[in-house]
Design brief:
Mean pLDDT: 82
Strand order of the largest sheet: 1-2
Helix content: over 70%
Order of helices and strands: HHHEHHHHHHEHHHHHHHHHH
Oligomer: single chain
Number of strands: 2
Low-confidence stretches: none
Radius of gyration: 26 Å
């Protein structure tokens, strides 16, 4: 298809489907919550009605109030035409520089803030203040995400990044994609950052800034929000599935027509799936407190920065980072985060993430090893996710429900000291492994290092933390280390042995949890220091 026609088709497609995307999220959320819900096509009627209504404008406003809807709407339209959403190689592909895109987003945010401040209302000022706080946290993360992809792909244009299909050929860019997912939710004022359906003054961010608008101005602002949501959803899916993006090239009339129809069809599928997943996410999570926003965006920023550092490290040492190496690093990283925590729910969550990373190790090895072991590794990954990331946390939490003392897991060390001890353990493991003759004999040295590090961190968790629960969790971490060691040496076990091991793990976690609960009931304490005094 001609690049000019491809760009026009993409832009008008986004403009036309954006109201449907917004309505589809509300419809899916209603169905997930047991309600019938309004039609997903209702926003078309709503926007048409708003454009016909008379506007009520405060006498205290200036020309800024009237300019804001046009600027915000124009920035969203610009993103729809510039970014590679349906096609790569469009007429405006050269303008998809990630710094230009970040600037366009910032212009829209700044003018929206000015529109909230101009009427002088209390709600508008509060929402504008919160929006600038979020924008200050979001923009650096966006730049860091695309900087990592730019470094790997050798181009500043987002069009070129998607055209090269970078993500699956460079596993560490999955960290950048995860950070971009968190940024997408924040930039579009969705859960857990903001509730787009609320009008409560304590929770409003985006809605507070447009509260004074009505009629056509309100329609333009709401339409711009729907367009931006659609743009981010399709762009995120394009990074994950770059092969689904068409190529704008000079073709015959028949071929160009077929390419356009296929691109539109794939775009509709992406919108439906993305909005359905967004509705599911907003139905199972709650809105985050505004004062915890820096934690949320810090996770996004440091995840993106971690991906950037791995990309630079891989370039310096001239060694490709493979999937199993990345997931091994993540498995150890999550246990380090667990090591410095004191709340049992948070510790269980990090244990589940670490176990999920071990499933990722098996998945990564399946692409390297032979066909005979691939099925075993896939089954191992699936059962690991089911047992260790889902069932075991549920079993342990079930045993903890009766005793509030299990909610916290006191430690002999402060968090900073705990992290320092964890780094020392990693350093000692590295130097010991370097002196071990097994290095160079085993095929995957990084996995061997991860397995020994997990065993050491599990032992340290049992020593440093004083709660009975921490002893159970320490044993589970050690078992994860043994699991990784098995993947390094044996690659895969017979199916019956693997299933038997998983059943034993679940039974052990349940028995130990019940035993810890009974010890608490009998002795009146779950602190290992108090229980040690009973022996003495």
């Amino acid at each position: 298809m001609n690049p000019i026609l491809a760009t026009l088709l993409q832009g008008f497609f986004i403009i036309l489907i954006a109201p449907f995307a917004s309505g589809l999220v509300r419809f899916c959320k209603a169905r997930l919550q047991g309600r019938k819900g309004a039609s997903p096509f209702l926003p078309y009627y709503t926007f048409a009605t708003l454009f016909k209504k008379q506007m009520v404008i405060s006498a205290a406003t200036s020309w800024v109030f009237r300019v804001v809807p046009f600027v915000v709407f124009s920035t969203s339209i610009a993103l729809a035409f510039i970014l590679p959403l349906l096609f790569v190689g469009g007429k405006l592909a050269s303008m998809s520089d990630f710094l230009v895109v970040a600037g366009i987003l910032m212009i829209g945010s700044i003018f929206l803030v000015l529109g909230g401040l101009d009427p002088g209302s209390a709600f508008g000022g509060m929402g504008s203040s919160r929006e600038m706080t979020i924008a200050a946290l979001v923009e650096p993360t966006i730049i860091m995400v695309f900087a990592a992809m730019s470094f790997v792909g050798g181009t500043f244009a987002i069009d070129g990044m998607i055209g090269q299909q970078l993500v699956f050929s460079h596993p560490y860019l999955l960290l950048s994609i995860f950070a971009f997912l968190l940024v997408t939710l924040a930039e579009n004022a969705r859960y857990p950052v903001d509730n787009p359906a609320t009008h409560l003054e304590l929770t409003m961010v985006h809605e507070a800034m447009i509260l004074e608008y009505s009629g056509a101005y309100l329609a333009m602002l709401e339409y711009a929000s729907a367009i931006k949501l659609t743009v981010f959803a399709i762009l995120l899916s394009n990074f994950i599935f770059p092969a689904t993006v068409g190529v704008a090239a000079s073709l015959g009339i028949g071929s160009a027509l077929v390419a356009g129809i296929v691109a539109i069809f794939i775009g509709i599928i992406k919108v439906v799936i993305a909005m359905g997943l967004l509705a599911l996410l907003e139905s199972v999570v709650v809105k985050m407190r505004f004062y915890r926003m820096q934690e949320y965006m810090s996770i996004a920023f440091f995840t993106a920065m971690f991906g950037m550092l791995i990309a630079m490290f891989s370039y310096v040492i001239e060694v490709a980072i493979e999937y199993h190496t990345l997931f091994a690093a993540l498995a150890v990283f999550f246990v380090i985060l667990l090591f410095g925590r004191a709340r049992s729910q948070v510790m269980l969550r990090y244990y589940a993430f670490s176990s999920l990373s071990i499933a990722g190790i098996a998945f990564g090895l399946s692409f390297i090893l032979g066909e005979e072991e691939k099925k075993h590794l896939w089954l191992f990954a699936a059962v690991t996710i089911l047992i260790k990331s889902i069932i075991i946390p549920i079993v342990v939490r079930y045993a903890q429900r009766k005793h509030k003392e299990f909610i916290s897991s006191p430690s002999f060390l402060r968090p900073a000291s705990s992290y320092f001890v964890a780094v020392v353990i990693l350093g000692a493991t590295f130097f010991v492994m370097k002196q071990t003759p097994i290095i160079g004999v085993v095929e995957f040295d990084t996995l061997l290092f991860a397995s020994i590090a997990l065993v050491g961190l599990g032992l340290a968790t049992m020593i440093v933390h004083r709660n009975i629960f921490s002893q159970i969790l320490g044993l589970l971490i050690i078992e994860n280390g043994v699991t990784v060691f098995t993947l390094v040496t044996v690659k895969s076990l017979p199916l019956l042995i693997e299933l038997g091991v998983f059943i034993i793990i679940v039974a052990s976690a349940f028995i130990l949890s019940i035993l810890g609960s009974r010890i608490r009931e009998f002795h009146g304490s779950s602190d290992t220091e108090d229980l040690r005094n009973l022996i003495e």
